[in-house]
Amino acid sequence: MFILNAQSLRTHSFPERAFKKLTNRYKVGKKVEAIQLGLQDISNRREALGIKNIGEGTSTSRSAQMLQDLRRSTPHAEEHVVVGLENEAYKLVNQLIGRDQRRRVISLVGMGGIGKTTLAKKVYNHTQVVECFPYYRAWAYVSQDCRPRDVYMKIIKQICSSTKEQVEMVEKFQEHELGDFLHGHLKDNRYLIVLDNVWSPADWSCLAKKSSNDPDCLGSVFPDGGKGSRILLTTRYKEVASHADVHLKELGEKMVDKCNGLPLAIVLLGGLLSKNMSHIEWKKVHDNMSAYLAKEGQIAGVMTMLNLSYIDLPSYLKPCFLHLSLFPEDYVISTRKLLLLWISEGFVLQQDRQSMKDTAEIYLNELINRNLIQVVRTSVNARVMECRVHDFIQELAIEKAKEHNFIGTNIVVDPHLFPSSSPSLFSSKSRRQSIYSDFERYASIEHYSTPYLRSLLYFNLGGICRISQLDFITKCFKVLRVQDLEGLGIENVPSIIGELIHLRYLGLRHTGLKMLPLSIGNLRNLQTLDINNLKRVPDVIRKITNMRYLYIEEQEEDDPLKIDTVQNLQILSGITFNQWIRNNSSKLTCLEKLKIEGRCELVEEVEFSNSIAKLHSSLISFYLKASDESSIPSLAMSSCPHLCKLDKKGRMQKLTETFKFTRNLSQLTLEACRLECDPMPILEKLPNLLTLRLRAGSYLGKKMHVSADGFPRLQILQLLRFK
Which pTM does this prediction carry? Predict the structure, then answer.
């Protein structure tokens, strides 16, 4: 690599360095030119052979077709007995045979392999359902490459008793004619149609479209004749369910809870445990379910089902999904951290008029809607705060990540927690590694076989782990982009960390570290610095002009800190009041989220208020936290028209004197404000307030009064620890 060659020239004289640098650049240029010619040749041959991009058009590859064929279902195929779904089946049967005479669409939603098709078959063949729909009952599998004509023909063959000649005539119909024909047979009858494995809202809309020119068939292909008809969909995507009348989200969640998310895997495991195994053998299976299923040749069936979800991912989501392979099993992931890691890795595309963090959050929600990520905790306004990945989904991510050299062939872990893991022989192509708990053991390994490592993540899974030397990271991984050592006890960071000129993310939260070296200012490409509890922050942040996300909460000392040269800064969390007023805030034109904390007794109110007013074009979220008994300086928040979220913790004067609220404020949190006058007469006039949280010490009075027309849009009111 040119970068590493340039590094090695530092020991040569200037003329020799200049000559060799030009030589290296010429060689690199020739290599790039050869690669470009090769790619152009491949592109030309691909077009000549009619080969399409992955995910472009219909799925024509043999492997994808094999997966689709394996997934294809029929209502009469032999099924294993699934224990624990009786209550769910009972509820679904009641939905199907209920007295409501309107046509209703019911959807079963969940990730691949969760048991949607199994449950649908169970109720489709249920005695009460068969009696309720004796004549017009049909099952159709909808492939990923949705073909309405094929689906209509499957249904027609099941509900129509036709002669051979009639069948031949119908088969000659165009797609819209088949839709009309099906509509005519269904409109005056009570029917049940199961559409298994609908992949997108567009597929559902296409199947139920109004495509006829016949004035007698102006409705949907599946008409509402007021006969109590039902359509049952199974799908992996919540967007499909949003088109349905009944979204059985609760049903899907209960299936996950009862069967650990994969009834299919439980069925396969039950077959293994039925072999008169001893208690000890049962315990071994319990401790390593996946390995035993793989040993019996059964895990392939589960992974085949899940593989369809990966194939269906758009290209921009695949690296985000593969990145999940780095996290430990059942690990609860902070979404704030996950989004910043994706941005630093370069997975998130820049969108016009939208921050990269917002785009990353859209990616996250897409993976959640596809049931590839599970939500663990949400905020009061329903934003995802924590998430996790199901065991089998993570296995799929690891398998695919290794196929693409996304991660190495080994992940170093604590031998006591994972005795089967090997710490040696990393692939030279490894780009990302994660360490679970035993970092000292990892540091003792020879790392020169992985010079191109881009990401190094550490996870503390319990216990105390400390490291005295981190020099090996800089010496061995010169092109490192992401370094996250959260939870690792660190005595000091070596000054040579400044040589990691490609570093974009540096996470040192909860490490016990008190000082950072001045050389941190050399990390000109650093976008995220996440650290807390420092004694003082070195006044070199001003040099890191590419910084976007700076977290420096709970500083012990209040030394000056210049940050107004970092004009790309979008999130600043943990700067003190005194540090803030010494900066020219008008230069921070991209700052969207600001948290100021610390002592504020010496802060001049007008000066502070003016400094916040200069953020009028960008500030969206503002958090104030006072650490002393003095009142937080007065603010005219109306000068920040885009402000949506305000958190205030600390003593304040009368609400009317202290804050002039912006009309766009949608979230407000007050804590330890010690207000003596009822705040409701002022707060209830905020026209767009959706969430109001009044926490301990926010109000010292005994009563609060709200008028009948107050809080016109309030959705969430939280009152905590009121006396």
Answer: 0.70
